[in-house]
Amino acid sequence: MVDEGSAEGGSRGVRYERLLAEAVPEIYRINAFRVTQLPVNATQREVSRQVEKISMAAKIGVAAELNDKVMPLVPPPDSDALRHAVQRLRDPEKRFLDELFWFWPSDDGAEKDVALQTLRTEGPSAAAAVWEAAEGQGGRRGTLAQHNLAVLWHIAALDAEHEERVGNLSDAGRKALPALWDAAFKRWGELRKSVPFWQVLRERVKEINDPRLDDSTVANARKTLPEALAVISARLAMADFDAGKTDACRRVLSRLWESGLPQADIKRAIRDALGPVRARFKASGEAFENRPEGKPRGILVAAGRFLEQTERLLLLVDMALPNGDAMRVGLHDDVALTVMGMTIAYANESEDFRGSIAWLERASTIAEGEAARHRAKENIATARENADAKVAYDRAAVRAAASPRYRQGSGGGVAAAGASAVVGGASCLVRTFGIFIVIALIGGVISLAGKGCGCDSTSSSSSNSGSSYSLSGYDSGSASDSSVPDTPDAAPSVNYNAIANKISAMIKYNNSLPRSVTNAKPSVATKFLMYAGGIETWAALNDPDNETSGLCKKASNLARAAAALYKDPSSDSAWSRWNTNVKTFNRAWRNWGKSH
Questions:
Q1: Which residues pair with 437 in a beta bridge?
Q2: DSSP string, 315-381
Q3: Strand partners for 415
Q4: Cα–Cα distance, 444 to 427 (Å, whole number)
Q5: Over the stretch 139-166, which tens digit does the pLDDT of each residue have?
Q6: How many helices (H) and strands (E) does the chain have?
Q7: Closest by Cα among 485, 487, 506, 490 to 552
Q8: Contact in structure between 296 and 346 (CB atoms under 8 Å)
Q9: Torsion sign (Cα): 553, 559, 560, 564
């Protein structure tokens, strides 16, 4: 025995791409020797005669009658299939591979080979008994029998799978499938490690005597055979899945993972077979990447369509790849993060934080990576906090609206019998550069008319008077009321509502941006610079307290940093610093809201 992937006396093999290209579920249905019913040692003269027979039949519009009946195809091949088979026989490499996957006669020749005669007349089981007896004798005859048994059971398994896919397989045939697969993989596993077999194959290459075939071809075939066998099954499973045969797909993949083939070859074969599926994932994600136009509810409708398109594909991925596989985790997380992103966009626009929780939880069940699961957990917690805060805000607004208005006491004094302002508690889920963060807009709602999450806020008179208090609707009161001051409190000279609205508008704009940025966005950069300029202008024209002045500086710096990043989004470290600055700003924004 020699190292796998090398041939005795030859060079170490490399991955044989031609073999992998031919490794399709129909490998035996397009095999030139099965289609033409010629033996693998047919001479060029015999091939020419067969071509002439096929041509004559085509001229008169009938299928050519072929004498041999070794595992005949059902239905029989038509003239086009026969012509393609003959073309394969004229290509040395394709003929070599078709010989590798077909029966070899004993040294007595195909006409005198007892096992092949038995296969024609009595079927696979009887022929298998003959080959098993010959296998025990060893030598060249035993090696050929070993090869033929591998081919026999592989054909039987693939033919049965074909019948299953077209709906013609009996219950008994379906029950026999696992045993057929086990026998095929067992035989191929023994054969690929057999030194005598690969020596016979090298001798065959010398007989063919074509410069395009040599010992390296055999070495390459040996190295690639395990992966090729895995590729056949992986592609078969994908075909079954596309045909709606989920149980068949699961069975084929299960037998493949238990085949005894090298795990690396199985994984590579499955990943390659999943290539079209990965492309479908990508196409679905790109189709729903941009926020749908129209009402916020449309975002959830789009998220539902996205899940419909991807969840069945995830079922295939889960059947094909084991837990913890990098590709499986990545595809699951891509779907989960896309659903989370769409849900966050919906929550930010609709403020339906309670309704978004179920969608975030659904995304959490899809995620498999630790980072994605943690992100989902954080967003669920934030959505619950925001939902509770919104309820509290709404209740406070109702209570404040029901309170009596200011009463004017004696001597022109004012008693604050009602709430002067409501400091809000609604928060936003903000999606930024593919990393989900939370910016709590505590203090983003100053007046009773304000909304949560970065909306415009107004009061009945503050926009005109510059005061953050509503002083309209005075009532006459008793002059003897000594519990109120002799003169009304002086209204603040700074309109803090205005700066709260400016900063809230900047955050709301940030919420509307795409989840990731790879190319420069000059218009977005300009918008952030406008926000920075507006905040700086307000600070210059007013005389804010030190805390507000510091907040304005932080907000301006944040906007200018965002502008720089959208001009040049290539630096990952810069994005990281920006996200850190956002968290710092969150704290300042919350503290400012409590005091203003």
A1: 430
A2: HHHHHHS-TT-HHHHHHHHHHHHHHHHHHHHHHHHH--HHHHHHHHHHHHHH--SHHHHHHHHHHHH
A3: 407
A4: 9
A5: 899 999 999 999 999 999 999 999 998 8
A6: 23, 4
A7: 506
A8: yes
A9: positive
